[in-house]
Amino acid sequence: MKSKKNIEQKILRGLDFFRDYSRCHLNVRKGEFQLITNNLLELAKVVREPLPREKKEFLNLWHPFRIEQRATRKSKKKDIETFDIYSAANLVNIGILYWTFGEFKKAEESYSRALKICRQLAKQDPDIFEPDLAETINYLGNLYRNLKEIKKAEKFYTEALGIYRELAERDPDMFENVAGTLNNLGTIYSDLKEFEKAKKYYIKALGIRRELAEKDPDAFNPFLAITLNNLGSLYRDLREFKEAEEHSSEALKVFRELAEKEPEVFEPYLAMTLNNFGNLYSDLRKFKKAEESYTEALKIYRELTEKYPDDFDFYMAETFNNLGGLNYDLRRFGKAENYYSKAKAIFNKLAERDPDTSRFGLAITLNNIGSLYRDLGEFEIAEKSYTEALKIYRELGEKEPKVFDPYIAITLNNIGNLYSDLNKLREAKKSYTEAVNIYGELVKKDPDTFDPYFRQTYSNLQETYSNLENLLGKTEELYRTKVSETLKKSSEKPD
Questions:
Q1: Could you give the CA distance from residue 151 to residue 140 in angstroms, rounded to a whole number?
Q2: What is the CA angle 101-106-108, rounded to 5?
Q3: CA-CA distance, 207 to 352, in Å (whole number)?
Q4: Structure letter (DSSP) for residue 342
Q5: Distance between CA atoms of residues 348 and 346, nearest Å
Q6: 20 to 30 Å CA-CA from 3: which of 78, 332, 361, 440?
C-alpha cells in the first residue's frame, strides 16, 4: 500500500478531477462537490483498512457520478434494500480509488462485486437501475482496456453499449453515454489493428458528440475533442494523412482553448494531442514541426509530473521515447540515445510498481534502443535490448495475441536483421521464419496493414536462404578442394 503522503496526493488529485469534471458533465450538478469531497476523503480510510463485512460497518458513500439521482429517485419495488444500493455505490467508489493507486486486482474485485449487485437491482427495477448497471460494466471495460486485456474489455463495452442504446431511446441525456462507449470500442479495435472497424465506431461517436456540442459546447466540447484526437490517430495508422491532420488540428484547437480557461483539467489532453501531432509529422517527414510538437508536450508533462508525481511520468516517458525516435530518424544518434535512456529509466521504475501498464512502453523503448545500437555497431547491446523486448512482447502476447503479435513479428524481424549483420545466418533464418509465419496470419485478417511488413520480412528470409546456399556452396567447394588436395598429396607419396 502507498504511503500516507502518497495517498493524500492522490486524493487531492481526485478531488481536482471531480471538481473539474462537474463543470463539464451534465449529470453532476451544483452543490454536489462537497459530497464528493467528503466521500473521497473517507475512501482513503477504506483503502488503508480491510474492507468491513458487516452491513453496519459499510460507509455511506455515494457513487460520484450519480449523486443527485441516487439521492432523490425512489424505486417502485419496496423489497429492494437501501443497503444494496449503498453497497454497490461503495464498491464502485472503492474500485475507482484502487485504480487510482494502481491496485488493479483489487479494483477488479470491487467492480465485480458491485456489478453482481447492480445486475440483481436492474432485474428487480430496470427503469431505475439499468443506468447504474451500464456504468459499472463500462468501468470494468475501462479497467481491462488499461490492462491490455482487450477481449474482456470488448465484451463489457459491447454489453454496456446495448444497455445505453436502449436507455437513450427513452432518455436523450444517455446519448453521451452511447457516444462514450462507441469511442471506447473504437479504441479497442484500434488496439487490435482492426482499423476499419475502429473507424466505424469513432465516426458514430463523433456524429453524436458533434450534435451534443452544438447544443451545449461547454459541456461536450471536451468529449468531442477526445474523439477527434482518436480519429486523427486512426487516420495516421491508415496512412490517410490529410484526414489525420484535419481531425487532429480540430482537436488541438479545442484543447488549447479549454486549457487556457482551465489548465489543471485540460493540459494533459493538450499534451496528448501534441504528442499525436508529433507522431503524424514524423511520419510525414516534417521533422521540425514534429520536434516542436513533442517539445511542447514534454514541457507540459514535466510541469504536471512536478505537481502530481506518479500520475504523468508514464506519458513523459512516452514523449522521451518519441523524441528518441525523431532524433534517430534524423541520424542524431547521441540525442536519440539520451532520450531513449530517459524513457527506459522511467519505464523500468514504473514496471517495479505497476508492471501491468508499463511493460508495453518499456518493450517499445527497448526495441528502439536495439535498432539504435545496431546502427552504432554495438551489436551486443543491440541483441540484449531486442531480446528483452521480445521476452516482454511474448509474455503480453500470451494473454492478447491479437494485440501483441504484430510487435512480436517486428522485433523478430529486427533480430533477424541483426544476425544477418553478424553473419549468423542460421539464427537470422530462424527469426525471419517465425516473423513471416506471424505476418502470414495477420495478412489474412488485414492485408492492407500487414502486407508490406510480410513482403519485407519474406524478402529478408529469401536473401538469408540465398546467402546460406552461397555459404554452403563455398563450404562444399572448399571441402572438395581440400579433399582433392589431400588425395593428390597422398597419391604423390612414394610407396
A1: 12
A2: 110
A3: 42
A4: H
A5: 5
A6: 361
Other residues' Cβ atoms within 10 Å of the Cβ of residue 383: 19
Per-residue pLDDT reduced to its tens digit, 407-427: 999 999 999 999 999 999 999
Task: Give helix 241-261 / helix 263-283 axis angle, nearest 10°.
Answer: 160
For 1-170, CATH gives 1.25.40.10
- 1-170 and 343-487 share one CATH topology? yes
**With b meaning 16 or more CB within 10 Å and e meaning fewer, what string describes 104-133?**
bebbbbbbebbbebbeebbeebeebbbbbb
CA 98 to the chain's CA centroid? 19
C-alpha cell of residue 134: 451500464
DSSP letter at 101 equals T
What is the average pLDDT across 242-266?
94
Round to whole Å and give the CA distance between 62 and 135: 14
The amino acid sitting at 373 is: Y
Task: Give the relative orientation of helices 126-146 and 104-124 as an angle to the nearest 10 degrees.
Answer: 160
Contact status, residue 347 vs residue 365, Cβ threshold 8 Å: yes
Which tens digit of pLDDT belongs to each residue from 332-379?
999 999 999 999 999 999 888 777 778 999 999 999 999 999 999 999
State residue 254 phi and psi, 5-degree precision: -65, -45
CATH 1.25.40.10 fits 343-487, yes or no: yes
Q: How far apart are CA 333 and CA 325, in angstroms?
A: 10
Domain-wise residue ranges, the chain: 1-170, 343-487
| Phi-psi map region of 3: left, alpha, beta (phi>0 left; psi -120 to 50 alpha) | beta
Q: How many CA atoms lie within 13 A of 326 on its CB side?
A: 27
Q: Mind listing the pLDDT tens digit for each residue in 10-41?
A: 444 544 444 444 343 333 333 334 444 445 44
- Residue listed under C-alpha cell 518499456: 362
Distances (CA, A) of 218 to 225, 250, 403: 12, 16, 36
From the list 143, 159, 212, 154, the residue with the least C-alpha distance to 186 is 154
pTM: 0.76
Give the span between the Cα atoms of 464 and 458, in whole angstroms: 10
